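Review form for a predicted model. The reviewer records the input and the model, then writes brief findings.
Reviewer: anonymous (R2)
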Amino acid sequence: VRFTLSLGVLSLALWLTVASLETFNLRVSRRLVNLPYVVWTLAYNCSTLFIFTLLELMLHFVESPAKGGGVSAWRGGRQCEILSDSINRNQLFIFLISNLLTGLANLTLPTLNASDSQAHATMVPYSILITSVAMVLDHFRVTLKYW
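Model under review:
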Protein backbone atom coordinates (compact mmCIF):
# COMPACT_ATOMS: atom_id res chain seq x y z
CA VAL A 1 0.00 0.00 0.00
CA ARG A 2 2.86 2.37 0.84
CA PHE A 3 4.50 1.75 -2.55
CA THR A 4 1.22 2.44 -4.39
CA LEU A 5 0.70 5.65 -2.44
CA SER A 6 4.28 6.75 -3.16
CA LEU A 7 3.78 6.10 -6.88
CA GLY A 8 0.59 8.16 -6.84
CA VAL A 9 2.28 11.10 -5.13
CA LEU A 10 5.27 10.89 -7.48
CA SER A 11 2.97 10.78 -10.52
CA LEU A 12 1.08 13.83 -9.34
CA ALA A 13 4.31 15.75 -8.68
CA LEU A 14 5.66 14.86 -12.12
CA TRP A 15 2.43 15.91 -13.87
CA LEU A 16 2.52 19.22 -11.98
CA THR A 17 6.12 19.65 -13.11
CA VAL A 18 5.10 19.06 -16.74
CA ALA A 19 2.32 21.64 -16.38
CA SER A 20 4.66 24.19 -14.80
CA LEU A 21 7.26 23.67 -17.55
CA GLU A 22 4.56 24.32 -20.14
CA THR A 23 3.76 27.66 -18.49
CA PHE A 24 7.34 28.71 -19.31
CA ASN A 25 6.72 27.82 -22.99
CA LEU A 26 8.83 24.68 -22.73
CA ARG A 27 6.80 22.32 -24.89
CA VAL A 28 7.18 18.55 -24.84
CA SER A 29 9.20 17.48 -27.88
CA ARG A 30 10.00 13.88 -28.60
CA ARG A 31 12.33 14.87 -31.42
CA LEU A 32 14.42 17.18 -29.23
CA VAL A 33 14.24 14.90 -26.18
CA ASN A 34 14.10 17.99 -24.02
CA LEU A 35 13.49 18.25 -20.26
CA PRO A 36 9.69 18.48 -20.58
CA TYR A 37 9.70 15.28 -22.68
CA VAL A 38 11.80 13.41 -20.10
CA VAL A 39 9.56 14.58 -17.26
CA TRP A 40 6.43 13.76 -19.29
CA THR A 41 7.76 10.24 -19.96
CA LEU A 42 8.48 9.73 -16.27
CA ALA A 43 5.03 11.06 -15.33
CA TYR A 44 3.28 8.83 -17.87
CA ASN A 45 5.15 5.69 -16.83
CA CYS A 46 4.75 6.36 -13.11
CA SER A 47 1.03 6.93 -13.66
CA THR A 48 0.76 3.65 -15.55
CA LEU A 49 2.56 1.78 -12.78
CA PHE A 50 0.37 3.51 -10.20
CA ILE A 51 -2.79 2.39 -12.01
CA PHE A 52 -1.51 -1.19 -12.31
CA THR A 53 -0.54 -1.41 -8.64
CA LEU A 54 -3.84 0.17 -7.62
CA LEU A 55 -5.73 -2.42 -9.66
CA GLU A 56 -3.59 -5.15 -8.09
CA LEU A 57 -4.53 -3.92 -4.61
CA MET A 58 -8.20 -3.69 -5.55
CA LEU A 59 -8.13 -7.23 -6.93
CA HIS A 60 -6.48 -8.46 -3.76
CA PHE A 61 -9.06 -6.88 -1.47
CA VAL A 62 -12.12 -7.67 -3.62
CA GLU A 63 -11.46 -11.41 -3.50
CA SER A 64 -10.41 -11.87 0.08
CA PRO A 65 -7.78 -14.56 0.72
CA ALA A 66 -9.72 -15.47 3.87
CA LYS A 67 -12.50 -16.89 1.68
CA GLY A 68 -10.09 -19.07 -0.27
CA GLY A 69 -9.90 -16.76 -3.25
CA GLY A 70 -7.89 -13.73 -4.15
CA VAL A 71 -4.48 -13.06 -5.55
CA SER A 72 -2.47 -14.88 -2.91
CA ALA A 73 -4.49 -18.10 -3.33
CA TRP A 74 -4.27 -17.91 -7.11
CA ARG A 75 -0.50 -17.50 -6.93
CA GLY A 76 0.05 -20.33 -4.45
CA GLY A 77 0.16 -18.23 -1.29
CA ARG A 78 2.61 -15.66 -2.64
CA GLN A 79 1.54 -12.06 -2.66
CA CYS A 80 3.06 -10.62 -5.80
CA GLU A 81 2.32 -8.51 -8.81
CA ILE A 82 0.55 -10.74 -11.33
CA LEU A 83 1.26 -8.66 -14.41
CA SER A 84 4.90 -8.09 -13.49
CA ASP A 85 5.46 -11.81 -12.95
CA SER A 86 3.70 -12.61 -16.21
CA ILE A 87 5.87 -10.25 -18.23
CA ASN A 88 9.05 -11.21 -16.37
CA ARG A 89 8.57 -14.86 -17.31
CA ASN A 90 8.88 -14.08 -21.05
CA GLN A 91 10.48 -10.64 -21.27
CA LEU A 92 12.21 -11.09 -24.62
CA PHE A 93 9.18 -12.66 -26.28
CA ILE A 94 6.83 -9.92 -25.00
CA PHE A 95 9.34 -7.28 -26.16
CA LEU A 96 9.46 -8.82 -29.65
CA ILE A 97 5.66 -9.06 -29.86
CA SER A 98 5.41 -5.42 -28.76
CA ASN A 99 7.87 -4.31 -31.43
CA LEU A 100 6.06 -6.25 -34.14
CA LEU A 101 2.71 -4.75 -33.12
CA THR A 102 4.26 -1.27 -33.05
CA GLY A 103 5.59 -1.78 -36.57
CA LEU A 104 2.20 -3.05 -37.71
CA ALA A 105 0.48 0.00 -36.22
CA ASN A 106 2.99 2.37 -37.83
CA LEU A 107 2.58 0.74 -41.24
CA THR A 108 -1.21 0.52 -41.25
CA LEU A 109 -2.31 3.68 -39.39
CA PRO A 110 -1.59 7.35 -40.09
CA THR A 111 0.06 7.80 -36.68
CA LEU A 112 1.42 11.29 -37.33
CA ASN A 113 -2.06 12.67 -38.07
CA ALA A 114 -3.94 10.71 -35.41
CA SER A 115 -6.05 12.56 -32.87
CA ASP A 116 -5.84 11.82 -29.16
CA SER A 117 -8.97 9.67 -29.27
CA GLN A 118 -7.62 7.68 -32.24
CA ALA A 119 -4.34 7.16 -30.39
CA HIS A 120 -6.17 5.90 -27.31
CA ALA A 121 -8.38 3.68 -29.46
CA THR A 122 -5.19 2.15 -30.86
CA MET A 123 -3.21 1.91 -27.63
CA VAL A 124 -5.88 0.32 -25.45
CA PRO A 125 -6.29 -2.84 -27.60
CA TYR A 126 -2.51 -2.87 -28.13
CA SER A 127 -1.90 -2.90 -24.37
CA ILE A 128 -4.65 -5.43 -23.73
CA LEU A 129 -3.27 -7.76 -26.39
CA ILE A 130 0.29 -7.62 -25.07
CA THR A 131 -0.72 -8.11 -21.44
CA SER A 132 -3.13 -10.89 -22.41
CA VAL A 133 -0.37 -12.79 -24.21
CA ALA A 134 1.86 -12.43 -21.14
CA MET A 135 -0.90 -13.49 -18.74
CA VAL A 136 -1.94 -16.52 -20.81
CA LEU A 137 1.65 -17.73 -21.17
CA ASP A 138 2.19 -17.29 -17.43
CA HIS A 139 -1.09 -18.99 -16.56
CA PHE A 140 -0.06 -22.10 -18.49
CA ARG A 141 3.51 -21.82 -17.09
CA VAL A 142 5.01 -21.43 -20.56
CA THR A 143 8.52 -19.96 -20.63
CA LEU A 144 9.97 -19.09 -24.04
CA LYS A 145 13.73 -18.66 -24.06
CA TYR A 146 16.02 -18.55 -27.05
CA TRP A 147 19.29 -19.27 -25.28
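Findings: Residues 14 and 102 are 26 Å apart (CA to CA).
Further findings: The first helix runs from residue 2 to 23.
Recommendation: see findings above.
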